Records
---
Amino acid sequence: MTAADTRLFDVPTPVERLLHLAGQYTRHNDMLDLLAAEPDPGAAPGDDALAGSAQQLAYDTRTAITAIRAERLYASTEMTEILARLGQLAYLSHASAGHDVRTARDLTALAADASVGCAAALAVEMRRRGAMATAPDDRLSAERRTALAEIARGHVTVSILFDRERAQSRRHNRVRLSTLRALEKHHLTGRDPGSAPATYIGGPPQDRFRLTPAGITALASVIALPPPPRRTSPGAALRPAPARPPPVRSH
């Protein structure tokens, strides 16, 4: 985590740190994708910005591991798996710095997803041990929770088609444009214009949605929790059905 990123949080929790790390991996992978789309993407990153980004990610992942260990949580099977997975991410990120663009991209392809998965598993363990001090953000409906998680995983972009914005997300977890706009309005998300690969060959880059520091904190407070009950307005409360009159018997 860079000095600028550290200032985003006073004292980031381990879960927040992992969600931020997922965003860093997505940004790194987007850079690789845009470079791979250029005419001659075969050169190894070497000492350029991409190699530096990969090395920084490896360092930040190891820092996240250190922060998790500092919590002194019970060495459960789940915790062992979290630390092992993060160790793998650090190794793959470090190794990717010495490969060509396409190979480097393959090595970190699942890193954002894995970071969010580790954040969710860690949140479960911390709640189980009473180590989660943040109360759930009650502004977040089930739909908004899903949207924040999908953004954290790097699955949400916005593109322009026929002069209209279109949200792009995974088929089984679609995120509506209206939901994205609501999250933007509450300063939980932002967008990096033209930072994501195009949806078709030769097309313009897309805008990548990302979590703001406030969005990271909000998602960290609810990640891996069951969805909240659906709210109903007072007038929409179900009313008991009127009693039916007793049947008339014929004599």
---
Amino acid sequence: VRADSAYYSSTVTKAARDAGAEVSITVRMDKKVKAAIGTISDGAWTGIEYPEAIYDEETRAWISKAEVAEVPFTAFTSKKKSLHAAGRLVVRRIPELNETKRTAGQDPLFDLFRYHAFFTTVDKDRFDTVAADHIHRKHAIIEQINAELKNGALAHMPSGVFNANAAWVAVAAITHNLLRAAAGLIGGRMSKVRAQTLRTRIIGIPARIAHRARKLIVHLPRRWPWATEFARLWHAALSPPTRSLS
């Protein structure tokens, strides 16, 4: 069972374990968790590189590298003993890019890095630290897609009419897929930008359409910084398909 910090509770964990399931739940950064992170030695961290960069909302930057480590951890020790849960605290850290926090000098451990931790009851022999982090991070990827949708078409929901909402969700999903396909066709620096950036730079552009010799001509702005990317998408989408030699 993968879940975010809203579901980090003794009752959820116990219910999952009683049903025969393991859990992987993001934890809140309370004093106990911070103390556990503080016991991790510098040599215990393992570097990982994301196959696809992850967008960090707080710093508004793409993160492609991180480090992971873990410590044994017993959760919910403030509850009665039957609710205690023994497992692993898997921690991922990335460099702190926020200069204000880096220069604050309040806590050297948390000024230089940002930490993301989750509690899991999955045995280490089944999934080591890197594998456990990779599996748990899949939850974050779908959250990123949800954030993209909420920043787009889903911002206008709900309408109060079920069928209208269902149709709007379908349109939102189609739009999202088309935007990601367009970003992939453009490639380069545009392949991983957010949907809002793609709409601003490539789709919502000032242009003038003219008719000449039975052709439509699109007059784009001069010295437009995204002209190359737009042309790449234009040719990829509108050029005749490549003929197969077989």
---
Amino acid sequence: MLINEPVQRRIIVLGRILRNSFTPQLKTASVRQNVKLYSSEYHVTIGDVTKEVRPAKKPQYVPMKYLAIEPSQECLQHLRWMLQKDLLGQDMFLIGRPGPLRRQLAMQYLEMTGRELEYVALSRDTTEADLKQRREIQNGTATYFDQCAVRAAVEGRILVLEGIEKAERNVLPILNNLLENREMHLEDGRFLIPASRYDKLLKEHTKEELERWHLVRVNESFRVIALGIPVPKYLGNPLDPPLRSRFQARDISGHTFKATL
């Protein structure tokens, strides 16, 4: 029986597939170099990234008992990435499935580097006053009190925003200018400006003049760590593109079975 050429070609390919399906295949595993953590009184080193550690002005603001004695390699990879972004002066966005892993990772980084914390759990009820300044009446006079975002910017702390997908759209743009330009207008008449511009003005004017102009210096150590979940896979409000571009994002997946052991 004669078999035309296309049918013969299909039979040859089918035979090759059947032969390969019964031959054992070697499993290739990606080999990742182990990352080690070295910590001293003045420096923290993860792999090839080193950061100088300064003593905290208020140690009670530094998280404690979050960092494990021997962190897993997966955790060290995340901490190394955060250490790099901190050295570059970039704000971070940790995104992952619902759970405490992202918050624990942020607290571990703050404990490892000795950084002071300002924490905000965002919700639909969060308003502009909860982030900037809150007005209270004392002795018949309206007084403004700085809130977490302002305190973190002035004191050089790390602002952790958890549940960023729960906030309303008219709340987060308040932080947009603070994230991009390190500037913010306050309700009491003061104006936050970046450290580089403040230091430049300080060379031309006195500190009393800058205080009279109500200019406040934003500390160069100020950072923001946002914690969120992917939307629309989960319920929430997606971030606006201008605000999303201010962060360096990293996917924080759940622990693997090997890391859990």
---
Amino acid sequence: TIPKVKGVYTAIKPICQALEIDRQRCDQAMIPVSFNGLDPLFMYTQLLKEALLDIEDDDKKSIKDLADYCCEQDDIPEDQIKQVEREYRNHTPIWWYTAETFIYPMLNRGLRQMDVDIILKMGFFIRHLHNHITQLHQEQQGSMPTKFQVFRGQGLSMEDFEKMKKTEGGLMSFNNFLSTSHKRTISLDNFVRPATNNPSSVGILFVMNIDTAICMKSSTPFAEVSK
């Protein structure tokens, strides 16, 4: 069973911090994963990504269309919608992706469910975020280590865990923009261990060894965004 009491707090700040960590765990556990690089979801995602990155549209109209779409939903706070309309150009795409707004969970849900309406409405943001990461990737090439290691903690459903075990030695893909950490303890303590409290999920620690000589040949950019 899932414990009903997760902590005892006597001040507002630690409560807010605990709730924020729980939100991150939930979002991170919902990142879609494919366990065979040639499965239909992976192929469809790649084709869709290429199409979205090639589209050139009016960003002002795209922001308005996204806001109108969000207003029709029941679970998006109106103040966040207005904030995006008013301040979108004041911040970087990475800032919006990591900010406490509807952007991250909505994009995550759209890519997880392959919801075409959401993906098309957020197409301009996907393009902006990809281009921003590409820009940082190019700027950081000279200072990036040749080889390094990053970690990602995530809860997987039992079904996905069984799929992963059957594809040992095969290819994996995360059908979203992927966040990792240089610190193993952060991934373990904030994401892996808490996932074990849910009997229907398995806590997984992904250890990723990055060889930039190989990665530079890929069309998928990556960058340090914590600075």
